[in-house]
Sequence to fold (348 residues):
Amino acid sequence: MTAKSTLTRLRPRRPRGPLTALLGLLGGALALAPATAHADGLESPATESGAVQSRTRWNERDEVHVTPSPGVTVGEVVIDNRLGDVRVRGWDRPEIRISVRKQAPDEHTLDRLKVRLLTMPDGTIRIRTTTLVGVEERQIPLASARIDLTIELPRDARLAARTWSGDVDVSGVRKGASLETGEGTISVRDVTGKVITHTAKGRQSFDGVRGDVAAAGVASDVELDDVVGNELSAKVFEGSVTAHGVRAHSVVLQTTLGQIIFRGVVLPGGSLDLRSYSGDVSAVLSAPREVEVVARGRGLDPLALGLRDVTSSAGTIIGRHGPAGPRARRGHVELGSSSGVLSLTWAN
Fold:
């Protein structure tokens, strides 16, 4: 594979007097508008003399094009960015374009921010951000410098992306994705294939996914909209799980501290498991076939749940909904909350 890079860097403005600084700000806004990089300016309060001091950061933008060798296709892209966000877009081209934005408080720190690119003969591409550390170099605080990556890759390439404290945003890929962040949001849109995600802290959203989804988190709200697949799983410790327009043969939504809201279809022979330890569980279901329901909680009312052939004991109700049919085609629903309220409504 061959790689071609273009680099643009602009250093911060020098301190100037009050009138010169004002003219520079007005003129600079016009001059820098079409540029590919600029210095971010943050103005401090005026001093006693009336002068304005500007605290600026160094910015650098780099764009790398990776073209596969003849007979080689990009099979997998693995991204590890410990210094910022990752944004991935699938496109209808065989090559990869990597757009890099670096920010640092000074030029020396900026020079220590690096993006490593490794291409393998089998079509695997590995992208990793790092910082150069010498014998006398001090460690760079993560809050003072960052690298944000925007990557456009062939739609049919497999994707794995990880950040430490940055967001992950993916759309337009067709071989699924494995996504992870220590602290940041995960956003998945218009993706085909199995999607696996995990975040210790941050919101997760899925929209227009055609494939299995396995989402996990510690402190994380999960939102699922228009997800169609065979297996759907979302499990968090603290956070709410909301699902609308979901169609999957097996659905498991679980949280310890939070609520669950589900609106979707129970497929013939399919299963739905909605459980929260301390939050409310609300479900609006449509079911073309007979469904068996097991509800566990306090103060349950079989009539309010729309069930027939009910048996109950020790805070558990078992009943059925819909016309009787073959057992193999019967759907299965489990709802549970130790201290929250269970709500079940049938849309058909």
